[in-house]
Amino acid sequence: PARATEPRGVAALRTIGRDLTHDAGPPRVRRGVSKESWAAGPEGEPSPLQAFATADTRLLMFGGKGGVGKTTCAAAAAIAISARSPGRRVLLISIDPAHSLADTLGMALSDSAVAVPGAPGNLLARELDASRVFNAVRQKYAAAIDQLFDRLAGGSSLDVGHDRSVMHGLIDLAPPGLDELAAIIEITDAISGDDPKWDLAVVDTAPTGHALRLLEMPALIHDWTKALMAILLKYQPVTGLGDLGALLLKLSRGLGRLRELLTDNARTSFVIVTRAAALPRAESIRLAKQLGRIRIGVPVLVVNAVGRGTCARCRLASASERREISALSRAIAPPSAARTLVRAATLVPAPHGAARLRRWQRTGWVV
Fold it and tell me: What is the value of pTM for the model shown?
């Protein structure tokens, strides 16, 4: 059953354990409870979209603890931004391996970007298939290795069997997440350069740990490509760098562009989505610190699902919400940090579909 306070500590968790392991019988059904949608929210001024994305922003990421509403907030922001700037080509893309963007938009999605029914025509949505991108890279990599060592085998006195095996094995020893990183580089290429395909990518990331690993990966992959290049340079006097050298160079340059983009606060923003509760607050504070350590800008903090009813228990929950929001504001969004704290209204059921998402963002997001 739901509790008035978050279960923290052994005693509270033991109580839940007893609930899980003892048959409490069928749940009690409250009569007369409305099954219609329900909304409650804080008072304040409408949230400015400019805080999320300026005209210079190219990459807008939404992240935070699992279950806080990252996908819903990312979708609502993408729809609002595309409506405000009809000439701006906006891609809303999920890179969470456990995609939920299609559910939020109320439509089928795949790895191909498609229009969103009811949303502005300049917005397309996509659920990234990172394995497809990485498999293409893997095939090119394997073919380039075989081409290199086949040339060496023809009349060369070198015993290259060991290095061929090592080079093939290194692709399998790449740091976890290389598949997603390769896909992110593809997105980076699509929003950068002289002829970009998109003007803005709004990215629904995976929960905190997974997202942080991905953002920290460019430095790790750089070391991995150096290991590959060190072996390749042994044979450069005999064969040149060939297709494998070109492939590694392309990956290295893509990593460089991604690292440059991520740390450019004018072009990249990370929005932390959280809830007005102790556990999400603690994780959000850690996330903000880690993003600061890797120099990724966090201009906005969204506290999602704010607002309760008027019963006695709801009033206690509202008081707890206010305390948590104050703590979040002090820790993550003090005036000195120049961050905007946005409170997003509670809506039951959660908004889905372009029309409800746009209405929720327009009327339920306040500062």
Answer: 0.86
